[in-house]
Predict the 3D structure of the following.
Amino acid sequence: MKKSWVMKEIEENRSGEIVIEGLSASPGIAIGPAFIYQRGNIKVDPQKVDHKEVKRELKSFEEVKELTVRDLERISSIGRRGIGNDSSDIIDAQIEIVNDPELRKSIHTHIKDQQFKADYAVCEAFNKYLGLIESSGNKLMIERLVDIRDIRDRMVRKLQHRWQTMSVNERSIIVSDEITPSEIIEFTRSNILALALNKGGLTTHTSIIANAMGLPAVAGTSIATRVIQRGEKIIVDGTRGRIIVRPTNESLDKYQRLLRQQKRKERDLQKILSLPSTTASGENFTLRANMEFDEELINVEKYKADGIGLLRTESLFISDGIHLDRSSQEAFYRKSIIVAGQQTVTIRLFDVGGDKILNETKPEANPFLGWRGIRILLDRRDLLEDQLYAILKVAGEYPGRVKILLPMVSSMEELQAVKEEIGKVQDTLKNEGHAIDKHIQIGIMVEVPSTAIQADDFASHVDFFSIGTNDLTQYTLAVDRGNTLISNLYQQMHPAIWKLIEMTVTAAKKYQKEVTVCGELASNPFGAMCLMGMGISDLSMVPTAIPKVKKILVSQTMDEMQDLIKKVEKAISYSDVIAIVKNWYKEYDKNNNG
Ligand code: PEP
Ligand code: MG
């Protein structure tokens, strides 16, 4: 008998079990009922508009374009923190597609010359673009088609003001043709178990977000939705890229065993997280979370972070110079405080500029050395005032729980100016009858070398220092943090960086001020040990790094960590430091793995 198309692509054994092979889009195993999810297709009609309405359509398109870029930037940042740079670079490439001048020109032409509505214009221009990719035969680009279609659909839906409310069954496995990152984020609220998809590749947004959310996913199966029936029990093996439908008892046993192993590993991780945060010699330390997006806030609890050590607020910007209004900002800050439980939240003022949005001005030759962070805020007092109003109002509701952090400070004048502004906004709030936190702590990022060098001068004027090793490294070593051509020179453990950290710690100790590190160095277990040895016991990092950092810190005595940093501080080159790191891990592995 001739085999059906399905049979060619799947293996079915006599028992009726079907194994669908796909791509391992996100590792892990899940067993559960299937939920077939079908998103409605976008619908666009070639509707024309009046001559008078052309301007409005152009404006709508531009607004939606900016919103889409913002969405993508959000995914890129989540991905960067979840599974590393490579995949986020792909999203950055997609941001370029949305910003592509040719695509924009084509959309404008459809609207201006042919007087089509913006949704139709977007659809037409994207379809032409998709057609070109399809016929190019470029495998990597063809893998991107899902994401490009997603961008098209996203923009069209935004233009049509069509927002679907999605509801899926709790604790089910989503089986779908394809899925967008925003849908995954939406679905995780229903505690879904895994994803089984017809389309998608390894480097799609879906894969990035699934990884960041710890959701097993198999993509690119072509047939999942046609083979799997609603409600039936299936197994998703994201690690091997396999879906097992109608599993035999034998397969179920095997996978239940693997699932138990997976849960054991998760429990071991939880065990580490449940240990008291004390070194082997009994000193306490604090590990906090770096946060930026609403969607990430769940990780504060998941990784048992001691509150939020760095709340980046750039996500509150919608587009060039437009930021969320005061009450939307307040909602985000309140939610962060609630998530942090009894711990504190350090809210950093907008650090826009550099590589982060807000390019309303003329292009700058050196944006990282340009109009960025506190420099923008002091020029754009409306931004500063709105943000301070929202922060200080919420801080008044939760006294002692909010700290304010100033980004990119390079001079004493900047600190004084912001302090004055804080005083003024607090007066306004008082006059309006709101409570205020009179003792709200104000700190500065130490990320520009001049500030580290002047730490002793700053110390008596601040409540705390937060060392941002990401920028401190770029500015000290004159190495653009995003330039892949020189990424080998971007060395957070360079001897010069240790010296600047040491200067900051010495100043903080002298004036009995708190000092914390929120740059990537803190999320490196070796870096964290050295910082502890220097006397910095308060570290803030991407939450997924907390278990590995904690595991090392609880295993070391303070003497050991002090000896280690003494050795590192003697190094006169980066290669010397790396030799110390390698040696240390060799010894550690010997002692811990026999
Ligand atoms: C830093 O510069 O180290 C830092 C934490 O801030 P960001 O990465 O947001 O610039
Ligand atoms: Mg920084």
